[in-house]
């Protein structure tokens, strides 16, 4: 009894250790690790084995900044393969950016004389230059992105202002540049990178007093202008290599018909709404400028309709303008071929004011075409509103039905649903009978 109490209250002696089996004698006690020996006078201690458990060599531990003592060139093989690629991309980026800027400066240098001779203010500084030499390329152009530059000019009769956009390839991105180049070479549907500038002249069309700022106490009395209005129409001269893309990308071009003209070179065609417009717009100077421009010319269009197809009636409001596009030459000397045509573009507003009033029959035909497009938009808008009203009525009807069902008992709900099912069945039977 005393031995039992000792065992319960912890007073018993520890039991004899179990007898070890000979087969497991080696696992009973692990050998104590022996400390590593240190060499007298050495300031370094052994470091962890970084070459794996099976490596016999130990990397010595050194100061943190003594990297060369614990590494070797083969530890940087991946970096040695990646760094040249990164360096090549950086060099390509700086080369492409500088070349695009140089191309934009060359355009500004070549066109500053033509712009300053036609407009009072050229560039973004808002000051009138005394001579074309005072206009610097930096003040004439503004960099929107690495591949797009803009220019601006204002202060001319019949033209409110001119916007110019210079579009260049993405030379700063080698992956994008070469991908677009290869895809453009292999597939016709993929446009290859090209260097082009697009100019848009917005005409006053009799709205000088609404656009030109005047002193507050003047009330526009000192602003004396001639009649700058002309009839709205669409007329374009397009290079035949660019004709299909031009008609596909532009809504206003889709409203015209194509017809060749004997006065123009055989590699351009005319897109117009009336042959009478072509007879009034073509001049000897324009024909000579087109012949000199050659394949650098893309299109010249007089329009009052939007480029993108309008989705609302408000977007069909006419905005008269003249647009011109041409390719950038490979050298500054190549601008001599397109400069005469660019000058004709700047003066085309004067031609519109003088001969841009058509016969009533032609105006009526053009107006009917505009009204047909507006009717289509109005019809689509009415259908969309009718669909919205139908969905709103169905939503109200569904809410009333759910409210009515919530106020019924289970039996009443069952009878109500059965009646609905019967009505729907009879309605489907009547519909099938009418079809038969």
From TrEMBL:
GO terms for cellular component: endoplasmic reticulum; membrane. InterPro entries: CCDC47. Residues 380-423 have a biased composition (Basic and acidic residues). One of its GO terms (molecular function) is calcium ion binding. The chain crosses the membrane at residues 76-95. It is found in: Membrane. GO terms for biological process: endoplasmic reticulum calcium ion homeostasis. Residues 424-436 have a biased composition (Basic residues). It comes from the Eukaryota. It is a single-pass membrane protein. Keywords: Membrane, Transmembrane, Transmembrane helix. This is DUF1682-domain-containing protein. It comes from Aspergillus heteromorphus CBS 117.55.
